[in-house]
Specification:
- By secondary structure, the chain is α/β, with parallel strands linked by helices.
- It contains 20 helices and 21 strands.
- The longest helix is centred in the first third of the chain and has 18 residues.
Length: 507
């Protein structure tokens, strides 16, 4: 973006276009944001009224964290989200986030033990009640895989141990950084390649529940490489022919190393900065975030930036300036979606967190509206298939025609997903007769899914577009819209038709 253009944003009515005040946002302004918001449901947000407020404030996808809560809790949340979103006339996706092979400390004799720097602590793979000198862990083969000198991190890196020796099932360590330790705290092993299965017995039970409940996305925890994603895909294939999009969470050094093959196997990735910031040196996380997002953009896959985005709003009604910049930076990097975790699950200000994030997204998108770097990069690579070539032409035509919207008729969701990759300035409307496809488009940048009658003939495209665009105040005399479909119509994956329609009358 040239410096003069950047400055002109601040000299114009840029500050007047988006409401800076706190409190409820105008739903019409919320609808203008293109980056999607994922909100995690938990004790602070699991009521119909809270879910209604979250959706109206800008939540596009509800995350269910299967590391916490039982199936009855999650089933109730799914029902509430479905019911409330239908009442509001909006599609809201449901993301099932499975626990994965998280390694944890065992139970302690007391509620808490305090470890001091310099003391000796034995980690054992035998079952026992832990004390200040000996604690068990959940990975039965740890003693076979960890080596002298390796680091063990506990409770998101707050406690650091270094391995001095391994004898039988006993791993003798020295405490480098101490502190309080409670039951079942998580463990990380940044120096050790562990032979843990990507699917635990709990995960298999939870995935069966997710498929039965028709979740719209599944997030896979602690993915190591592409084979982990394919293993989950094979298991899901034994349960259903209709597998939801799979989002691989990048949270280990090995996953970063295998990023390209993970992107090949998954439908999207999540920059899971919590465990990633424990597994990798903290100073590397900002660069890794940019690398992961850039790679996902290049591969045409969904990318979500997550963890501690507005962490201070767990306790406070306003975020820090650094957090606001962090959210904005994720947008400028090229994220499709940003995620709230404890902020909406257990925090004091769940609704305010979503409202604040919506405001930051709207402001940042307005600032970056003339930044065509992602679009230009994608357009250069857009000649590999007929569908990509046609959608690239559609995006380019919106510039010369100053089109007000792109309307993609879809049976599978593929066409609007491809359009989204180009980051066009006009809003993308995905019209489908299938509710599940509409829900599965709620993570894609800039896409507004809408239920539509089945397209039977290309002559019906303007008529069906009109119903949706009038609702969004985009059906105006003299405006142009770019429409995409395929012939034969209603055949998934057949996008080969671009049609431009000039609106003759507003009625």
């Amino acid at each position: 973006m040239p410096a003069g253009e950047e400055l002109s944003l601040f000299q114009s009515n840029f500050y007047e276009e988006i409401d800076l005040s706190f409190g409820p946002l105008d739903p019409q302004k919320v609808d203008k944001k293109k980056t999607k918001i994922i909100g995690t449901l938990g004790p602070a947000s699991s009521t119909p009224n809270k879910i209604r407020q979250l959706i109206r404030s800008g939540m596009n996808v509800a995350r269910l964290n299967f590391s916490h809560g039982d199936q009855a809790f999650h089933a109730e949340n799914i029902n509430m989200v479905r019911k409330v979103s239908e009442e509001l006339g909006r599609f809201v996706g449901i993301l099932q986030d499975i626990q994965g092979p998280k390694i944890r400390l065992g139970k302690l004799k007391s509620d808490e033990v305090h470890l001091k720097a310099g003391q000796k602590l034995t980690i054992t793979t035998e079952k026992c009640l832990g004390s200040e000198t000996r604690i068990s862990c959940s990975h039965s083969k740890l003693h076979q895989e960890i080596k002298v000198g390796h680091r063990i991190l506990i409770d998101d890196g707050l406690i650091l141990l270094r391995v001095n020796s391994v004898k039988g099932r006993e791993i003798r360590t020295e405490v480098v950084f101490g502190g309080p330790v409670k039951n079942n705290k998580g463990m990380n092993f940044p120096d050790t390649r562990l032979s843990v299965s990507c699917l635990t017995p709990k995960d298999r039970v939870d995935l069966k529940f997710g498929i039965k409940s028709q979740v719209d996305f599944i997030a896979l925890s602690f993915v190591s490489d592409g084979s982990d994603v394919m293993a989950v895909r094979r298991y899901l294939k034994s349960l259903t022919r209709d597998i939801p999009p799979l989002i691989a969470k990048i949270e280990t050094q090995h996953a970063v190393h295998c990023l390209e093959e993970i992107l090949e196997a998954a439908d999207g990735v999540m920059v899971a900065r919590g465990d990633l910031g424990v597994e990798c040196p903290l100073e590397q996380v900002p660069a890794l975030q940019k690398k992961i997002i850039r790679s996902a953009n290049r591969a045409g896959k969904i990318v979500i930036t997550a963890t501690q985005m507005l962490e201070s709003m767990v306790w406070n009604p306003r975020p820090t300036r650094a957090e606001a910049s962090d959210v904005a930076n994720a947008v400028l990097d090229g994220s499709d979606a940003v995620m709230l975790s404890a902020e909406t699950a257990t925090g004091r200000y769940p609704v305010e967190s979503v409202q604040t994030m919506s405001r930051i997204l709207l402001r940042t998108e307005e600032f970056a509206k003339d930044d065509d770097r992602i679009q230009n990069a994608r357009l250069k690579e857009a000649k590999s298939t007929v569908a990509k070539a046609v959608t690239a032409a559609a995006v380019q035509s919106t510039k010369s025609l100053e089109a007000s919207a792109i309307v993609a008729f879809t049976q599978s969701g593929r066409t609007p997903r491809i359009v989204s990759q180009f980051r066009p300035k006009p809003k993308i409307f995905a019209l489908s007769p299938l509710p599940k496809i509409c829900r599965r488009l709620t993570l894609n940048w800039g896409v507004t899914p809408a239920l539509s009658d089945q397209l039977k003939h290309t002559d019906d495209m303007p008529r069906l577009s009109k119903k949706v665009l009038r609702k969004h105040r985009l059906w105006k005399k003299g405006s142009r819209i770019v429409m995409l479909s395929g012939t034969p119509v209603a055949k998934p994956g057949s996008t080969n038709l671009l049609k431009v329609h000039e609106i003759q009358t507003s009625s």
